[in-house]
Amino acid sequence: MLNRRTFLFATVTVTLTAQTPKPLILILMGPPGGGKGTQAEKITAEFGIPSVSTGDLLRAEVKSGSALGVQIQAVMQKGDLVSDDIVNRLIADRLSRPDARKGLILDGYPRDVAQAGYLDGLLNERNLPQPLVINLDVAEEEILKRLGQRGRKDDAPETVRSRLGVYARDTKPVLDYYGPSRVRKVDGLGAPEEVYSRVREAIRLAR
Ligand code: B4P
Questions:
Q1: DSSP states of 63-117 as a string?
Q2: What pLDDT, in 10s, does the model give residues 12-48?
Q3: 189 in Cβ contact with 107 (< 8 Å)
Q4: Could you read off the pLDDT of 177-186 as tens digits, one per residue?
Q5: What is the band of 102 on the pLDDT scale with cuts at 50, 70, 90?
Q6: Which residue CA neighbors atom 36 of ligand 1 most closely?
Q7: Which pTM does this prediction carry?
Q8: 91 to 86, 107, 156, 158, 196: CA distances (angstroms)
Q9: Best substitution site from 36, 44, 104, 171 to test ligand 1's pocket, by max atoms within 8 Å of Cβ?
């Protein structure tokens, strides 16, 4: 028989568990210019979890003019991936901030299997759940069109070709690393709002 105190404790525990949703760790993947940053903003606005773009963090380091920024700039201008050590450190620092306890959107990370392995270790260490991976599927002609219009330094046609090669060689294997139980493929063609309604549905069904 439950006494009154045990009953109250059990009720409070159940209520607290029901009120505290599990943190959501979301990885946005897709080719360069696939719309990861665009969708990350919309997810943050609706789900209230912060997003971190390794591309933005690296561009900020370049802008600061630091010695590290100068090294990073040379790599990004070629369309190559910045070293795992640098990017992993940025993510470990970001995950330590208190707002990441509710969850985090990783926009453009992990970009290779070594980064994915490192992330697994970090999530385990911090008692965070395994990630859900949203893979934005966008055809090459559309990417060339979008990036041609954007005109960032690394959007020059020869750099984009190199970035697409790096994506196929290093980043696509990350999808196999996570496998079908973690990855949801979402059609990335259409207006940003249309793409977002598919992203939202994929998140809803997976939770
Ligand atoms: P990122 O900053 O990740 O850049 P991206 O892949 O070009 O952009 P994204 O997919 O976010 O597209 P966006 O929403 O901006 O990477 C840049 C570089 O940083 C890499 O090449 C690498 O050197 C380095 N890097 C980053 N992460 C790294 C990591 N983890 N490890 C190592 N190196 C790393 O959209 C693109 C354009 O399309 C925009 O102009 C947007 O307005 C438009 N757009 C978006 N959605 C659209 C839609 N539905 N329809 C039409 N246009 C749309």
A1: HHT-HHHHHHHHHHHHTPPPPHHHHHHHHHHHHTSGGGGGEEEEES---SHHHHH
A2: 555 544 566 789 999 999 999 999 999 999 999 999 9
A3: no
A4: 999 999 999 9
A5: confident
A6: 33
A7: 0.89
A8: 9, 11, 28, 29, 25
A9: 36
pLDDT of residue 101: 86
- Alpha-carbon distance 36 to 28, whole Å? 6
Substitution site in 51, 52, 81 for ligand 1 pocket (most atoms within 8 Å of beta carbon): 81
Residue type, 114: A
39: which residues sit within 8 A by CB, 6+ positions away? Answer: 28, 134, 136, 192, 195, 196, 199
CB of residue 87 inside a 6 A radius of ligand 1: yes
**pLDDT (average), residues 136-150:** 96
Please report where in the chains the tokens 């259409």 appear, as a residue: 190
Please, are residues 115 and 84 in contact by the beta-carbon 8 Å criterion? Answer: yes
Compute the distance between CA of residue 168 and CA of residue 173 in angstroms, rounded to an integer: 8
**Whole-number Å distance between alpha carbons of 41 and 38:** 6
